[in-house]
Design a protein that fits this description.
By secondary structure, the protein is of the alpha/beta class. Helix content is about 40%, strand content about 10%. It contains seven helices and five strands, in the order E-E-H-E-H-H-E-H-H-H-E-H. Strands 1-2-3-4-5 form a five-stranded mixed beta sheet, with helices on one face. Helix 4 runs antiparallel to helix 5.
Length: about 200
């Protein structure tokens, strides 16, 4: 993750960019989240999640006991969560960009199918742990690892700022610009299908 702090005359503003890992324990991630909590004085102004791969958002996952890094970050009550347009749960299956409406079950089903493929790839790649693995198996394991479902983390991100969640695409103006005066944000991607 990256925690950016912007110092203004009367206050500091904090932006968290991504928060994930493919190797760290949940306890280590909670320690990092607690460090973020201390450094921000218990308040995050915004979170920017660049995409849903595990190494970018797994730290936003929650636990039933409320002790996970995602629980800690959520308690910092960010005013804004910025995500890519592809994460909008209201997208139609054939969406060409941002839309509004009810959550599209076919899109959610398609994402879950892709997650299943990633899990099967991981099982196939790791089935020979301890045995000599080919470079292709190692590569498949790495690709599958970052694509394993992050549903818990994604749902936490979608709920973290309530109605103050924005979905970005190439060239879109972001609300981050008004939150962080003097900082210029340029959204470079992802493009919409039309783009």
């Amino acid at each position: 993750c990256f925690l950016l702090t912007f110092h203004y005359r009367t206050t500091d503003r904090h932006l968290l960019i991504d928060f994930g890992s493919t190797w760290s324990s949940w306890r280590y991630m909670a320690d990092v989240a607690n460090d973020i909590r201390v450094r921000t004085g218990d308040k995050l102004d915004a979170v920017l999640a660049t995409h849903r791969h595990k190494d970018h958002i797994s730290g936003f996952a929650t636990r039933d006991d409320g002790d996970a890094s995602g629980d800690i970050i959520s308690a910092l009550e960010p005013d804004l969560v910025s995500m890519t347009w592809t994460e909008d749960p209201k997208l139609a299956a054939d969406a060409r960009g941002i839309t509004s409406g009810e959550p599209n079950l076919s899109l959610i089903s398609a994402l879950e199918s892709m997650d299943t493929v990633a899990q099967r790839a991981m099982l196939a790649a790791t089935s020979r742990r301890g045995a000599r693995r080919s470079s292709r198996q190692v590569e498949m394991e790495s690709l599958a690892e970052i694509n394993i479902p992050n549903r818990n983390a994604l749902l936490n991100l979608l709920n973290m700022a309530g109605q103050k969640t924005e979905f970005l695409h190439y060239g879109k103006k972001t609300s981050l610009s008004s939150k962080f005066r003097g900082v210029k944000f340029h959204v470079l991607g992802p493009p919409t299908i039309r783009q």
